[in-house]
């Protein structure tokens, strides 16, 4: 059970970082607002 | 009905926009440019919907910057996808009415109904400025409504005036051209009118074109316009008139007459005190000393005054780790929560008091009116390196975060100055570096008194900020003399009156920043800590029977994925005095600089088992080389690491925003690559000099 929860948490963290990285790289290329500084959206 | 809101920067235009539309706004970009487009709407008492477009802050319609060019195109109905507005609302700062009326006189010639919102009238009155509004209406020929947008005063009158504006006579030019200028500009006017513009607009454009380098997009297609403007300039020069200064001379001449008749300046006590403070704060020698003393005080505050609160937060995080450790059964989940999440995120969250103090200090300096003086004091140094004085504002914002700071460089008209500013802004120490500096200084720099007053820890922190600033100026000087060579222009800056900062606005700005910091800790830093925990924990390795617990944990860490990764990085960072753990933490901090601290927290959390979480600084101080038994972290290593962080661009968001703001695509990536590359070389080289130099001199 513990292992299952740990795996789920890891998958969620990986998905979050992956999505954020993709959005940041895309934002740099196409002129949409980007960046992880929360002040700017 | 569609209205456009326009005004100089800092006139309270955005506050008025929010007050009119109730903050229901849509934010985007104007087509093809990185100029922000903000739209909203409101409903009148009669049920009519009024669409409000908030145009970028502009000092004139001279199209000196992308912001001003867009504003002009929208008002002429030439911006793609945006219909020409029915009414222009020009926001005029009552305290600086003379300068603000310049834009107004240009707008009067566009052939559109206009309403003037005479904003911040309360501040003007408090500063001893009295304005005869009925006479001003008479002189301008349009409705003028005094407003205080922050208190919503005058809002209903303004809304009524907007609805009535289309039924009033259209405004027009309020002064006449000298005959020789009128004749010289006649061919230019004719060409513009033949291209479909109204007589009013043609008059405004003809005068404006005398001072611009080349006709902008909306006029570029008119054949022979360049030649006609060149001929007009020659005719004016022959008549002894400076063509480039003619528009400013005529408009300011008229404005000066209007203000002398309708604006009274009464000297107030506040003015006198302000003048006395300025005599010191803006002095050639005293000014820079005051600036240095104030910044020194801020960093003293971060170390000396916050200690009790910071200790409290640290103890709370430690207790939380121990409590959760005893509540959960042993296993991977407990290790993840205690060593990954609490040790990682907790090690960053403990710096919340320092972050709060930094933003409180920045808020006080801004609200009191000192920041504009600091920009003026620094202008002299900025010009010496070839940068425009306006570059200092983005550089100051860089102390908070490089992302908005790089965006704010949009206000710099000269493209090469703007690029040079963008390239050096990340050298200013942002708030994300604060946890790194604080952790290392707090652990390895003694809190001894220097000269009986200064704390050595505060001085070290100040030195790091100063190092970044000096490097930014030096690198800018190199860029401006090589890749980005262009003449620098003098700076015009408005000095707001001194005032006591309002506690409520300070509280809002500090709590907003604190929330952003906690949000980052709860999102990016949390996710990275979890992933790093996994990399540091797996694959599991079995220690030989009889191996001491600490050694077994160290072996486990070294044989983990993270350990292998660290060994790969180690050769690059070893000459700087760093071990593989520091190398991995530096690499991970590319996600966000604070991640350096959380990664160290996680590595030392995993490395010490899950029996609780003593403070990270204590763990670093106790760390010994397993072979030599010598401390891994010395003051010299800490200094080398801090110097590395002063210069290194370990921030993916900054890279992304640089790509975007330098044109995107291959060009943008090229500039961002150059920025990352030169900063890495500078960081590595400087850290190497510190470490190797320190060793050679017998330190560490």
Which structural category fits the helices and strands of chain A? mainly alpha
Number of helices of chain B: 31
Order of helices and strands of chain A: H
Q: Which geometry of chain A do the CA atoms define? A: rod-shaped
The pair of chains with the biggest contact is: A-B, 26 and 40 residues
- Overall strand count of chain B: 11
- Radius of gyration of chain A, taken over Cα atoms and rounded to an integer in Å: 14 Å
Sheet with the most strands, sense and barrel status of chain B: 7 strands, mixed
Fraction in helix of chain A: over 70%
Tell the overall outline of chain B: elongated
Mean pLDDT of chain B: 86
Low-pLDDT parts of chain A are 29-41
What is the radius of gyration of chain B computed over CA atoms, rounded to a whole number of angstroms?
A: 30 Å
Number of strands of chain A: 0
CATH superfamily of the domain at 2-167 in chain B: P-loop containing nucleotide triphosphate hydrolases
Q: Describe the oligomeric state of these chains in a short phrase.
A: heterodimer
In CATH, the architecture of the domain at 2-167 in chain B is 3-Layer(aba) Sandwich
| Strand composition percent of chain A | under 5%
Q: Which CATH top level class of the domain at 2-167 in chain B fits? A: Alpha Beta
């Amino acid at each position: 059970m513990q292992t299952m929860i740990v795996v789920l948490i890891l998958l969620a963290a990986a998905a979050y970082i992956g999505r954020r990285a993709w959005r940041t790289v895309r934002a740099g290329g196409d002129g949409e607002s980007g960046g992880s500084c929360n002040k700017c959206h | 009905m569609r209205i456009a809101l326009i005004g100089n920067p800092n006139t309270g235009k955005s506050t008025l926009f929010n007050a009119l539309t109730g903050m229901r706004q849509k934010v985007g970009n104007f087509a093809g440019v990185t100029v922000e487009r903000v739209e909203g709407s409101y409903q009148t008492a009669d049920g009519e919907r009024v669409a409000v477009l908030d145009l970028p802050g502009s000092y004139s319609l001279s199209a000196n910057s992308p912001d001003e060019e867009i504003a002009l195109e929208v008002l002429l109905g030439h911006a793609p996808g945006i219909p020409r507005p029915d009414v222009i609302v020009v926001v005029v700062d009552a305290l600086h009415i003379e300068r603000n009326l310049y834009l107004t006189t240009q707008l009067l010639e566009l052939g559109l109904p206009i309403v003037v919102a005479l904003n911040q009238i309360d501040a003007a009155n408090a500063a001893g400025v009295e304005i005869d509004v009925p006479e001003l209406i008479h002189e301008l020929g349009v409705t003028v409504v005094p407003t205080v947008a922050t208190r919503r005063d005058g809002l209903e009158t303004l809304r009524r005036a907007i609805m009535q504006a289309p039924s009033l006579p259209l405004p027009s030019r309020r002064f006449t051209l000298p005959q020789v200028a009128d004749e010289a500009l006649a061919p230019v006017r004719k060409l513009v009118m033949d291209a479909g513009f109204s007589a009013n607009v043609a008059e405004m454009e003809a005068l404006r074109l005398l001072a611009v380098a080349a006709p902008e997009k909306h006029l570029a297609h008119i054949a022979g316009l360049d030649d006609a403007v060149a001929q007009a300039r020659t005719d004016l020069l022959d008549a002894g008139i400076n063509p480039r200064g003619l528009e400013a001379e005529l408009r300011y001449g008229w404005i000066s007459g209007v203000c002398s008749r309708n604006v009274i300046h009464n000297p107030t006590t506040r003015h006198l005190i302000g003048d006395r403070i300025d005599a010191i704060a803006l002095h050639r020698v005293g000014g820079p000393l005051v600036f240095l003393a104030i910044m020194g005080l801020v960093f003293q505050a971060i170390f000396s005054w916050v200690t009790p609160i910071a200790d409290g937060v640290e103890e709370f995080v430690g207790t939380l780790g121990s409590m959760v450790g005893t509540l959960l059964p042993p296993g991977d989940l407990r290790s993840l929560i205690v060593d990954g999440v609490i040790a990682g995120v907790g090690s960053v969250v403990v710096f919340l008091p320092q972050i709060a103090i930094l933003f409180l200090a920045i808020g006080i300096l801004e609200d009191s009116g000192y920041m504009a003086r600091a920009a003026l004091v620094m202008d002299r140094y900025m010009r010496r390196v070839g940068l425009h004085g306006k570059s200092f504002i983005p550089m100051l914002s860089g102390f908070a975060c490089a992302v908005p700071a790089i965006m704010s460089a949009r206000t710099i008209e000269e493209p090469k100055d703007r690029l040079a500013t963008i390239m050096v802004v990340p050298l200013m120490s942002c708030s994300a570096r604060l946890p790194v500096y604080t952790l290392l200084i707090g652990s390895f720099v003694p809190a001894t008194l220097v000269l009986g007053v200064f704390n050595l820890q505060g001085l070290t922190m100040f030195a790091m900020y100063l190092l970044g600033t000096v490097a930014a100026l030096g690198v800018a000087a190199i860029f401006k003399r090589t890749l980005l060579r262009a003449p620098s222009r003098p700076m015009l800056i408005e000095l707001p009156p001194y005032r006591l900062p309002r506690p409520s606005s300070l509280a809002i700005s500090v709590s907003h920043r604190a929330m952003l910091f906690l949000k980052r800790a709860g999102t990016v830093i949390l996710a990275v800590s979890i992933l790093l925990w996994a990399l540091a924990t797996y694959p599991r390795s079995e220690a030989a029977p009889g191996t001491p617990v600490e050694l077994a944990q160290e072996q486990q860490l070294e044989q983990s994925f993270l350990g292998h990764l660290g060994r790969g990085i180690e050769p690059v960072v070893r000459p700087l005095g760093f071990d593989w753990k520091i190398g991995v933490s530096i690499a991970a901090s590319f996600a966000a600089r604070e991640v350096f601290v959380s990664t160290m927290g996680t590595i030392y959390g995993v490395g010490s088992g899950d029996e609780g979480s003593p403070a990270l600084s204590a763990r670093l101080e106790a760390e010994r080389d397993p072979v030599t038994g010598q401390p891994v972290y010395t003051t010299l290593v800490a200094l080398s690491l801090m110097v590395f962080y002063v210069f290194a661009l370990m921030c993916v968001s900054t890279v992304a925003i640089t790509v975007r703001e330098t044109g995107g695509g291959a060009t943008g990536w090229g500039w961002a690559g150059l920025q990352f590359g030169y900063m890495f070389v500078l960081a590595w080289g400087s850290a190497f000099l510190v470490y190797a130099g320190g060793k050679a001199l017998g330190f560490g």
